[in-house]
Each structure stands twice: as structure tokens, then as C-alpha cells.
Design brief:
The structure holds 2 protein chains of 2 kinds. By secondary structure, chain A is α/β, with parallel strands linked by helices. Chain A contains 5 helices and 7 strands. Chain A has a 5-stranded mixed beta sheet, covered by helices on one side. By secondary structure, chain B is mainly beta. Helix content of chain B is 5%, strand content 58%. Chain B contains 3 helices and 31 strands. The radius of gyration of chain B is 25 Å and the shape is globular. Chain B starts with a helix and ends with a strand. Classes of the chains: A alpha/beta, B mainly beta. Chains A and B meet through α1, α3, α4, β7 and α5 of A and α1, β1, β2, β3 and β4 of B.
């Protein structure tokens, strides 16, 4: 346990470093490769990356709400929603029919072996990050009904 | 300790070097997860706490990134011991994984521990699942080469992690993928093909073996999509190797090859989706050490063979969970297993807003059906051999159909309803006895009181004709605001034939979350049984106690 504390202490010393989006390439729902570094790089635009899975009820609830509110919000803020599916190969094939079935209108990327999720040390989903100019500027860990409106208010300040 | 100091040394020196140039951004990032449990005696439940009642699993993941370079380590601490029924190889504190990686648009090179997956993972997947205690990362090297948009090549070599050590074998692998739609400039069609090779080289200890040290395995796959239609197929072959019927029993007399076929197709358009999957697996268990086959901790597992059924989230729908049956066991004439065959179908439909069934906010419907059988064929006992029929459906192992309806009534009210019917053959799946037929009904409602304050209520009932018989369950959750939530739940096995076993499994707890941090406490009872994540399961014993979990990132 002492060793563990030593490592924690070391982490404490670095806690104020800024955090950048990883340079990963992941497939989207159309089988095209998307680069986190170059495909989400419009200057000053806010990108909401929402980590979800087909079996995660609160995730789907959150994305449903965001899908309904998206258009109205976009009149106020320049942002884009990217739903990152963390489904592994067990449930990944369910992503496409579910997304279309629900009529979600945002880009979906597939993090099948959870490289993106692991990079960000995400333990539980839903987990939402807001990225501006490649930097992570806001994190929301979890979701309760109403969080989506809070997030919009937050976007206006970022 | 040496490992930790070495890693800290590297980290510090990288920090110092990097900080000298102000223009180049140095990133330090990672996360911390801690799950602790204080086990208590519980006379009514009939459990006694273990000798070390306070146990904790802790994970610290720390990385440094500088331009295209990333270096990282994960330290893990299981003090005094790991939580109940985790792999005993997770013992005390140490650096568990470390890596250094260089990546640009063409080359991605890793030395140290890495996680890779070929195709759908039927031959090889490394992944981490802390709830299940799985971390089967390879320690070695990986090269991913993407010289052009339509071609990708991967090569890996390594030894597989087990506890804080590595397994006693060498793993080699290569994978290629061609994007045919890019090569032939198809605009509206997506078409790709790929192939992989995986080998495990483990020295055989039996004299004059009928199989070789190195077990080779091959796979080919194709993926197609055009407008709303899509289809994919993957075939895997594993060369003849010792069949392991019981853990630690590697014999020389029962040697068979393995294979798997996975086919998926579907169609979707706005408001509608249908998806069907077929899978046949024969003798596909693959471990980095032969003797590890069938160990209960998923230790040294090389491939990802999830059960292809719907992942249910209700408590009572997770009592009789199908577990994929890739392995061989010819125990007697009533248990004859050489693999599994079956499939599932999903259907999604969205009743539009404003339609009769859709109402003001729309109604969402999901149907799922799955059916899994033991592979059919001719089995020879006591000689121990078999010849399977390619499309032979043997005894039924699991069937489920379910329906889920989600409905938003107003800005404040939302509800969901599920009905699940299961047929679970415990004798074949768990190699115990009997068969259980169940019906599960679940309903939930969420009511929003104000901005981020809401109440969620869930009621469930399970009717079962055997085993522990009927259960009832209720959950109440109160989200006070976006930071605090509390909940209480109870699962009551009121229908148990034995009055002494009609237990309540009550829990009460709360969670706090802010930005990337989440802290949760819970007091209550844990039902003994399988905890499954992504179709892979871990057995947990009954217990009672207080748990504390924390996770954060930096």
C-alpha cells in the first residue's frame, strides 16, 4: 500500500496538467475511419463526445434527450454531438439498427476494443466530455434526467 | 518496488526534458479507481465474513504524452486481499502494466503491455474488465502499419498477463485488412475483407504428444454495407490441439481442431431496424496455457467468446444468464458438449410522434429473440471422440424472447416496460442439474420534479418453475440534484421451496459525482451467482457488507 501511496503522491504533483484529445483513429458507422485529431478540429467549435452502449439505459435516455433538443440548442451555440459506442463485439452489431431505429441524428463512432475509453480512464458510462480546440474543457460523469439542460447552459460559458 | 522507481524515473526525466521547451505541450493524464468492501457477518443470510474482512481493489493509470509519444503505467493494489472471488494471482501491490507508444498517421508502435483485437475477437482479444478481474494484455511489441487509406496491417508478439506476472507461452499474431470500397472507389457501398493469424507456442509436458507445441489459428472476414443493408461474416479455424475437459487436465488422447463461424446481417432506416446473427462454435476455447482452460477466473483467456443474447439491465433478468459454450465436455451420455450453435434476432421500431401509438413524444419498441443449442453430431463414449454435423442442432441450452417498450408521456413522465421469457438448461450450461423456465415482468417510471431532481421507481417479478422459484424486486432512486443520488432496493426470493432460504437481498446507498469524480457507498447484501459484463461472467459468493467505490480522472 505504501508503494501505491507513493504513486498517488506523484500524481498529485502533476494534477494541473491540461488534457488533450488522443490521436486515435476509430471507425464510424459507415465503416469509414475517423481521426479524433483531424476530424474534430474546427476552431472554437464545441464537440460533445458522449460515451454510451446499446445496453446502457441512462446513456440512451441522455442521447434521446439530446437528440430532441439538439436543433434548438444549435441556434445558440456552435456544437456537434458525437456518440461514442463502447459496445464490444457482443453488442456492436446492434448499434446500427438501434441508432437508425431511434432516428438519432449525430455521428457515431465505434470504440470496439475501448481504446478511447481506456485512454480517458472512464470507469462508468454514461460519460460525457466537451472538447474545444482539441482540449477537454468539461467532463460529466454519469447522467440524471435534466443533466442535458445543464450541459447546454455550460456550453454557453465554454 | 524496483519497477515503480524505474517507471517514476522515466516519468520524471520525460517531464523535465519536455518542460524545457514551452512550445511543445506535455500532457500528463490518467485515472484512479478504488473499490473497497467491508464484509460483515450475516446470520440470517448464513454468511460469515472472510478472515480479512476489509478488502480493496485499486487501480491507478498514469500516462505522459509528448508529441507522438505516450508512456504509461498501471499500478494495482489488492490490500489486504482482493475482493471476494477475484483471481488469487491479484495479490498485494505492484506495477501491473506499462508501455511506451509512438504513433503517427502511418505507424503505431508499442513496446510493453498492449490491448489488441483481431476481427470480432474470436481468436484473439486483449481487454480489461475490472469488475470481472480480467486483464489479459500482452507484454511484448505491436506494430500497426497504415501506409494507405485502404490497407492496414498489424503484427503482435507477446506473453500474456496473468496476475502480476505473465503466462508461460509465446503469442504471435498478424492481421491485414483491405478496404475494397476505397480501392475500387465505390461511393455508396462499403466493402472490406480481412484475415488474421494467431499462434500460441507453449511447451508440451506430456511425452510423445499427438499435437504440437505451437497451435496455429487462422481467420478470414468480410464486411459489406449498401444503403440500409449490411452483412458481415467471419470464419475461424484452430488447428488440432489437446481437448481440455477439466481444468489442469491436459491429456494426450483427445486431440481435436476447432472452428467458428459468425454471420450477421441487417437492415435499418430511420425509425426501423432489424438485425440477425448466427454463430456456430466448435472446440474454440483458447488459453495462453492449455492447463488454464476452464478456470473460473477467465485467467489467461486469449479470445473473446461472449454469449450472443440481449444484455438485460433488470435485476431479476440477470439471474439466469446464458454463458457461451465454446468448449468440449463429454461427461456422460446426458452431457455431450462440443460447442454451441444458434443465433439471435433484434427488431427496433419507433412509433412516430403524433401517430396513434406514438403520442406526443413517440414510443420506442425493441424485440429480441435468441436460441442456443449444443452442437449436434455423433459422440463416442467412453472412447472420447465426436463428429459434429455442421448445422446440427443438439439439445437446447437457452432460449429467450423479450419485448421492451419505452414511452415518454410528458416533459415530466417517462416509463419503460419489459417482458422476458427464458428457458435455461442448467444441466448443460453449468453442468449441474435441471432446467428452469422463467417469465420476468418489469416496469419502471421516472418522474422529473424539477431541473435535475427526479424519482425513478422499478418493480420486477420473476416466475420460475424450478431452482429458487419466484422472486420479487423493487428499486427506488432519488436524484436530489446533478451531484447527489440515493437509492434503495430489495430482491426477495419469496418463492423458495426452503423457507430458510427465502432471503431478502436489500441494498441502500448513495452516490456523489462532480466533473470526472464519482464516489458511491452501499450497504447491503450481494446475491450469490454470476456477475456478467459483456457476456462474460464471474462467479461471486453471497456476502453482506459495506462498500465504497471511487473513481476519478486527472
Amino acid at each position: 500500500m505504501k508503494k501505491f501511496s507513493l504513486l498517488l503522491l506523484f500524481v498529485g504533483l502533476h494534477a494541473f496538467a491540461q488534457k488533450e484529445l488522443p490521436n486515435l483513429q476509430l471507425p464510424n458507422l459507415d465503416g469509414k475511419t475517423v481521426s479524433l485529431k483531424s476530424d474534430f478540429s474546427e476552431k472554437d467549435k464545441l464537440y460533445i463526445f458522449s460515451f454510451w452502449a446499446t445496453w446502457c439505459t441512462p446513456c440512451i435516455q441522455e442521447l434521446d434527450e439530446m437528440n430532441d433538443l439538439k436543433e434548438a440548442w444549435q441556434k445558440e451555440v456552435n456544437f456537434e454531438i458525437v456518440a461514442v459506442s463502447t459496445d464490444d463485439s457482443r453488442t456492436q452489431k446492434r448499434v446500427k439498427p438501434l441508432v437508425n431505429g431511434k432516428g438519432w441524428e449525430f455521428s457515431i463512432i465505434l470504440d470496439t476494443n475501448q481504446d478511447f475509453k481506456r485512454y480517458l480512464s472512464i470507469v462508468n458510462i454514461p460519460y460525457t466530455i466537451v472538447v474545444k480546440n482539441q482540449q477537454i474543457v468539461h467532463i460529466q460523469n454519469g447522467y440524471v434526467p435534466g443533466n442535458e439542460k445543464e450541459l447546454l447552459e455550460k456550453l454557453k460559458t465554454l | 518496488m524496483k519497477k515503480i522507481l524505474l517507471c517514476l524515473g522515466i516519468f520524471c526525466s520525460v517531464s523535465i526534458v519536455a518542460q524545457e521547451k514551452e512550445n511543445d505541450k506535455l500532457n500528463f493524464f490518467g485515472g484512479l479507481e478504488s473499490n473497497s468492501q467491508w464484509y460483515l457477518n450475516d446470520k440470517d443470510l448464513g454468511v460469515q465474513h472472510p478472515v480479512n474482512p476489509i478488502r480493496s481493489n485499486n487501480y491507478l493509470f498514469a500516462n505522459l504524452r509528448y508529441k507522438g509519444w505516450t508512456a504509461g503505467l498501471q499500478a494495482e493494489s489488492y490490500e489486504e486481499e482482493a475482493l471476494l472471488n477475484y483471481n488469487p494471482r491479484y495479490d498485494k501491490t505492484d506495477v501491473a502494466t506499462y508501455f511506451i507508444r509512438y504513433k503517427n498517421e502511418i505507424v503505431d508502435l508499442t513496446a510493453g503491455y498492449f490491448y489488441e483485437q483481431f476481427g470480432s475477437g474470436l481468436l484473439m482479444r486483449q481487454w480489461e474488465d475490472r469488475q470481472l478481474g480480467i486483464n489479459n494484455a500482452l507484454r511484448g511489441g505491436r506494430l500497426i502499419f497504415t501506409p494507405v487509406k485502404w490497407f492496414k496491417m498489424k503484427g503482435v508478439y507477446g506473453r500474456q498477463r496473468t496476475g502480476f506476472d505473465v503466462a508461460n507461452s509465446d503469442i504471435y499474431g498478424a492481421d491485414v485488412e483491405f478496404g475494397l470500397s476505397d480501392i475500387f472507389k465505390m461511393q455508396t457501398t462499403e466493402l472490406s475483407v480481412g484475415g488474421s493469424y494467431v499462434a500460441r507456442d507453449e511447451k508440451i509436458l506430456v511425452p510423445n504428444p499427438y499435437y504440437s507445441n505451437r497451435t496455429d489459428a487462422y481467420a478470414g472476414r468480410i464486411n459489406f454495407a449498401h444503403s440500409g443493408y449490411y452483412a458481415s461474416a467471419e470464419y475461424n479455424y484452430k488447428m488440432p490441439d489437446a481437448v481440455i475437459e477439466k481444468k489442469e487436465e491436459v491429456k494426450n488422447t483427445f486431440v481435436k481442431p476447432g472452428n467458428a463461424l459468425l454471420v450477421n446481417m441487417g437492415y435499418s432506416k430511420k425509425g426501423f431496424g432489424i438485425d440477425a446473427t448466427f454463430r456456430r462454435m466448435e472446440n474454440m476455447s483458447f488459453y495462453s496455457e492449455r492447463a488454464a482452460n476452464k478456470n473460473q477466473f477467465n485467467d489467461r483467456i486469449m479470445n473473446f467468446l461472449p454469449s450472443l443474447t440481449k444484455q438485460q439491465h433488470y435485476n431479476l433478468a440477470n439471474i439466469y444468464v446464458y454463458q457461451a459454450q465454446p468448449g468440449v465436455n463429454l461427461a456422460d451420455n446426458t452431457v455431450l458438449k462440443a460447442g454451441e450453435i444458434g443465433g439471435q434476432i433484434d427488431f427496433f421500431y419507433n412509433f412516430k410522434k403524433g401517430s396513434v401509438l406514438g403520442g406526443k413524444y413517440g414510443t420506442k419498441l425493441a424485440l429480441n429473440y435468441s436460441d442456443w443449442h449444443a452442437l449436434g453430431g455423433d459422440f463416442y463414449l467412453p472412447k472420447k471422440d465426436y463428429n459434429t454435423d455442421y448445422f446440427g442442432f443438439g439439445k437446447r441450452m437457452f432460449t429467450e424472447y423479450n419485448i421492451e417498450i419505452n414511452k415518454k408521456w410528458s416533459d415530466k413522465w417517462q416509463s419503460a416496460f419489459s417482458y422476458i421469457n427464458q428457458n435455461y438448461n442448467s444441466k448443460l450450461i453449468e453442468e449441474t442439474f435441471g432446467e428452469v423456465k422463467t417469465n420476468v415482468l418489469a416496469a419502471e417510471a421516472t418522474y422529473k420534479l424539477k431541473a435535475t431532481r427526479s424519482i425513478r421507481l422499478v418493480g420486477e417479478h420473476l416466475w420460475a418453475d424450478a431452482d429458487k422459484k419466484n422472486w420479487a424486486s423493487a428499486t427506488a432512486e432519488f436524484n436530489i440534484n446533478s451531484m447527489f443520488s440515493v437509492y434503495t432496493s430489495d430482491m426477495y426470493n419469496y418463492g423458495n421451496d426452503d423457507p430458510d432460504l427465502r432471503n431478502h437481498y436489500y441494498n441502500v446507498g448513495g452516490a456523489f459525482r462532480k466533473n470526472s469524480t464519482r464516489i458511491a457507498v452501499n450497504y447491503g447484501r450481494q446475491r450469490g451467482g454470476l456477475v456478467c459484463v459483456g457476456g462474460v461472467c464471474r462467479f461471486v459468493p453471497e456476502s453482506s457488507g459495506i462498500s465504497l467505490s471511487l473513481n476519478t480522472t486527472f
